[in-house]
Structure formats: C-alpha cells, structure tokens
Design brief:
Shape: globular
Structural class: alpha/beta
Length: 263
C-alpha cells in the first residue's frame, strides 16, 4: 500500500532581494520530495503562506504523514513574546498561522507528523511552547549557511541515523509544548529533536532532506512517525493526549485592532 506524504512549506515566491533564500528552500523541498518518491511513496507540496487554509487542512486530512518543512522565523507574538532578535527579518504570518492550524488538525486526527527545523519550532509553539529567539553556532554566515552538528544522543531518535548532521538555524526550542519531550541535544545543550509522549509526532532541528545527505536520513524519520501512527491505540492515545487546543492572543488587524485566534 502506497503512503502519501503532504509537505507544508512557506511559499513559492519572494521579492528579488530574497531570491537566493527562496532558491535554497526550493532545493531542500525538491530533495525531500525526491527522497519520498525514491522509496515508492507519493508526495505533494503545499505553500502555507499562499494556499487557502481550507485547502491546506484538506491536504493534511488526506495524507498518511504530514511534514512541516523549514523556513523563516516564527512570529514571537504566537508564543507571548516581543521581537528580541538582533536582526529583524520579516515574518511569514500567514504561513505561521496556517501551519499551526495543520498541526492542530493532526492533533485531532492523531495523524503522523514530522517537523523539520522551522517545522519543529512550529510544532512546539502550536502546543504551547516557546523559543529561544537567537542562539549562536548553528548556522554559517558564509555562502553555504549549513554547519555540521554532532549530537550527544542521536541514537535516541534512531540508531540508523549517522553524524554529522547539517543545521542552519539561529532559533531553538526553549520551553517545551504540552506533551513534548526533548530527546536529542547538540554538544552545547540546544534541543535538536523532540517527540510527543503519546502522539506520532517527531521534530528535528537539522535538515535530513539536504541534497548532499543520503536520502534515507530523511525517509528514516518518516518511517518512524508512520510506524508510530500505525501502532497507536486510539482509546489510550486520546485519553493520554487529552484536549490539546491552544489559545493565544494574536493581532490580525492592519488597523491597530486586536483579535483572538483559537487554534
């Protein structure tokens, strides 16, 4: 039986000044799709910052596995903080909110979900956690933004994975969201992987889909969450997870009025 993976990325178009960044993300996304198709599964890409939310929710419901891919910083208002970053790059507010909606759809359906880099951070925020808005040493300022990262406890994620891993991030998980636990850390203590205690959710801070890495680094993570989803006891899982609705005040108006969004 074929497995279908729905991958949610940020967007397909950016202004000219961000063309190189978009090209980098496109390369990672294409590599993720190729890795999935190489093992005989099917894949579809969905731009969370451009597609209508009902379309994204439908895509998540029709998938066997959901993947939240990498990209831009998450707006700190979503986890109750002001912007404390040393460099104030633009947020992708629509993508933030629609991808959080996809996470909550997965919570309700108990559908397997893998978060990669930004995707892991979004998973944490969606479940009520917070982020370190700036950490050092996990990305390069050169032409190639990726750095090799060794973890203290990679085997806790999977004994099939091999180091070094490739990272490019300056934000990281701080307070864990409800039901999440940290299972792998970098040498300097940054959380590099999380899993949910009862739902088939896994998040990694590195980029296993990088085209220079063996494709099984990415598909192994997909198989992990897919297997966990297939072996769930629905009654036990729903009782353990409980109602995971998260409510946060989010300003949506461009005219200074505030609204409350319930995810």
């Amino acid at each position: 039986m074929s497995v279908h993976v729905a991958l949610f990325h940020v967007r397909t178009r950016r202004q000219a000044a961000a063309a190189a960044y978009q090209s980098l993300l496109d390369s990672l996304n294409a590599s993720a799709v190729a890795a999935i198709e190489r093992v005989g599964w099917t894949a579809s890409l969905h731009a969370a910052g451009e597609a209508p939310e009902p379309q994204l929710r439908r895509a998540s419901r029709e998938a066997d596995v959901i993947v939240l891919l990498g990209g831009d910083d998450i707006e700190p208002l979503l986890y109750g903080q002001s912007d404390r970053r040393p460099q104030h790059t633009a947020y992708q507010r629509r993508a933030d909110r629609t991808q959080i909606a996809v996470v909550m759809e997965a919570v309700r359906s108990r559908r397997p979900l893998l978060g990669v880099c930004r995707g892991m951070q979004l998973l944490n925020v969606a479940l009520g956690g917070t982020l370190h808005q700036h950490v050092c040493g996990h990305r390069s300022t050169g032409a190639d933004p990726f750095v090799a990262t060794d973890l203290n406890d990679l085997r806790a994620v999977s004994p099939r994975l091999r180091q070094p891993l490739l990272c490019t991030h300056h934000q990281a998980v701080d307070e864990l969201g409800r039901g999440l636990r940290a299972i792998a850390h970098s040498r300097n203590g940054v959380v590099e992987a999380v899993e949910h205690e009862s739902l088939p959710f896994l998040g990694v801070q590195w980029h296993p889909e990088h085209p220079s890495l063996p494709p099984d680094q990415f598909t192994e993570l997909l198989r992990i969450v897919h297997r966990r989803g297939a072996t769930l006891d629905p009654v036990t899982t729903m009782a353990a997870a409980g109602p995971l609705e998260v409510t946060r005040p989010v300003s949506l108006s461009t005219r200074g009025r505030a609204a409350v969004v319930r995810h």
